[in-house]
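Exercise 7b. Backbone tokens:
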């Protein structure tokens, strides 16, 4: 998905892929999707990122930063991926001592042990009206244990508070995989905050558009339905300036360029009435003849439940 605006709840799906039982890892699937999007939209891809910057792919903690750093896509895009707070990375090894095999890993960098951090390479801070004091610290030249040849930068973001939560938040850890750090380190925090827009889009697709309401019998039907949901996001985005604000009595008025997907969806039926449809009106065919004599379709085909991991013992 592309996030077209710095703020708001709009997303534009660029690709839909179902991870089947025999599919590769989520990181490999994400790399293939990013590659396909860049091949199909070479001119539009830079517009999805901030001006004067390469495209930025923001991912959650389900993806491997080492595998992302070792891919050839780092020459075309920058990755900002969240890492789990229990991860352990390594610094670059020291100089070769002349005996034995050269070391691949240096001192450990354990996210749960502040004593292993050392002085950050760079840091920046600001005061946000919603989050309070925001501090961003980065450590460069770290790598995953399985990919010592692909270094990246580890980012630690600490905010003073979270909206509507009384408990102090824990630090958030990210991995920056790209060609150089931004001049303003706070952009890393701002860019990752835009990823939460995708989470709201998932909720909107499930609750309002009925993404998970249907129960298709075949995987191909599920794929077609997911692509239809993706097309709906684009239709609502293009219809923003064509519909009137159908707000509820307690909602504030908004200009046409600031309407949310929910408000555009609420006013979309009126636009369909004006546009019409190229399909011809259905013709009555009388009473259905029913199933032919002797036809017995039998039970529908069922697919076994596939578990990716071993089933836990009771």
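Sequence design result:
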């Amino acid at each position: 998905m592309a996030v077209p605006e710095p703020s708001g709840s709009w997303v534009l799906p660029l690709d839909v892929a179902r991870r089947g039982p025999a599919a590769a890892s989520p990181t490999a699937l994400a790399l293939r999707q990013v590659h396909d999007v860049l091949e199909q939209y070479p001119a539009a891809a830079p517009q999805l990122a901030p001006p004067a910057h390469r495209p930025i792919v923001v991912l959650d903690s389900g993806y491997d930063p080492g595998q992302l750093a070792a891919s050839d896509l780092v020459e075309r895009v920058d990755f900002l991926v969240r890492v789990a707070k229990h991860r352990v990375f390594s610094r670059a090894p020291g100089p070769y001592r002349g005996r034995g095999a050269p070391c691949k890993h240096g001192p450990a960098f354990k996210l749960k042990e502040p004593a292993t951090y050392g002085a950050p390479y760079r840091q920046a801070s600001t005061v946000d009206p919603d989050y309070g004091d925001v501090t961003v610290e980065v450590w460069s030249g770290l790598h995953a244990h399985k990919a010592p040849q692909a270094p990246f930068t580890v980012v630690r973001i600490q905010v003073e508070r979270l909206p509507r939560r009384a408990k102090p938040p824990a630090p958030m850890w990210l991995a920056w995989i790209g060609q150089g750090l931004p001049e303003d380190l706070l952009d890393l925090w701002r860019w990752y905050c835009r990823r939460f827009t995708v989470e709201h889009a998932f909720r909107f697709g499930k609750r309002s558009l009925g993404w998970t309401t249907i129960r298709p019998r075949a995987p191909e039907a599920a794929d077609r339905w997911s692509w239809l949901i993706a097309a709906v996001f684009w239709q609502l985005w293009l219809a923003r300036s064509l519909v009137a604000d159908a707000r509820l009595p307690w909602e504030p008025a908004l200009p046409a360029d600031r309407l949310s997907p929910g408000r555009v969806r609420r006013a979309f039926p009126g636009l369909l009435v004006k546009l019409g449809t190229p399909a011809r009106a259905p013709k009555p065919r009388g009473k259905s003849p029913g199933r032919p004599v002797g036809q017995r379709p039998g039970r529908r085909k069922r697919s076994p439940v596939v578990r990716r991991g071993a089933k836990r013992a009771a």
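Instructor comment: The mean pLDDT is 88. Residues 250 and 272 are 26 Å apart (CA to CA).
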